[in-house]
Amino acid sequence: MIYRSADDLDFTISSLPAVPVPGRVLMTTPAHFQVRYVINPHMKGNVGDVDVELAREQWDSLRAVYEAIGIPTSVVEGVSGLPDMVFCANQTLPYRRSDGRTGIVPSLMYAPERRGEVAHYRQFFASIDYEITPLPNRVDEFEGCGDALWVPGRQLLLGGYGFRTDEAAYEFLSEELETPIVSLNLSDPDFYHLDTCLCLLDAETVLIYP
Which residues on adjacent β-strands are paired with residue 198? Predict the structure, then answer.
């Protein structure tokens, strides 16, 4: 169930099984957020330039907005030595199986500087009784919801690959999670994750950077 071109598509969004839309948000505190190295084009020239107080104000404001509109937030504390941990879409892919069981697929991070983050999210999700589904050995890299985006309310995953995720990850995920996947080859290094250029607003609407 991997679709690699528009010509391959044999479904419409409305024909796909409906699934619950997530109603919670996971955030990670920015106490240790900083640009300390360069692992993407946007970090170049910005090492040491983070305004830590402003980052905390922005984080608090975002959390307050979620809670004001009735979306509860769970918080994983940031860890010293892991300054990018605050970008908490990248370390896991959460899922809900057809029988209602919830779980995560832990990421295999591209950059050595970020690999230590994953264990902290595994621990958090295990503590709330999510099952843990590891990727097989044939997959070298996978960066969770940075590249793998669930279509809201439908059983469909959009899968970016090329910089931080192996396409082989989607072959496993499609079979394991019993879901069709539209794979999207990323080609511009400025947009190394799918979520840097595409944001799903609902099942039929996306915000894109063309």
Answer: 208
Residue pair 50/32 in contact by the 8 Å Cβ criterion? no
Contact indicator for 151, 157 with CB cutoff of 8 Å? yes
**Helix-, strand-, coil-residue percentages of the chain, each rounded to 5:** 30, 25, 50
* 63 SS3 class: helix
Identify the pLDDT of residue 14: 94
144 phi-psi bin (left φ>0, alpha ψ -120 to 50, beta other):
left
pLDDT digits (tens, 9 = 90+) for 65-75: 999 999 999 99
Angle at 92 between CA 86 and CA 98, to 5 degrees: 140
N-term to C-term CA, the chain = 26
Query: Per-residue pLDDT tens for 128-175?
Result: 999 999 999 999 999 999 999 999 999 999 999 999 999 999 999 999
Sequence-distant (≥ 6) Cβ neighbours of residue 27 within 8 angstroms: 59, 62, 63, 73, 74, 75, 76, 88
The sign of the dihedral angle between the CA atoms of 76, 82, 83, 88 is negative
Q: Which residues of the chain have pLDDT under 50?
A: none
